[in-house]
Amino acid sequence: MLEELMNKVRQYGESLVVQNPAVPNEHNEDVLKEAGASIFSGLQEFAGKGDTNGLSGLLSGEENHPAMTEVKNNFADNITQKFGINGGTAKTLAATLIPSILGSLLKRPGAGNNAGISLDSILSSLTGGGNMQQDGFLNSMGEKLGLDRNGDGRIDLSDVTGMLK
Question: Best exposed site among 14, 52, 54, 60 by fewest CB in 10 Å?
Answer without folding.
Answer: 14
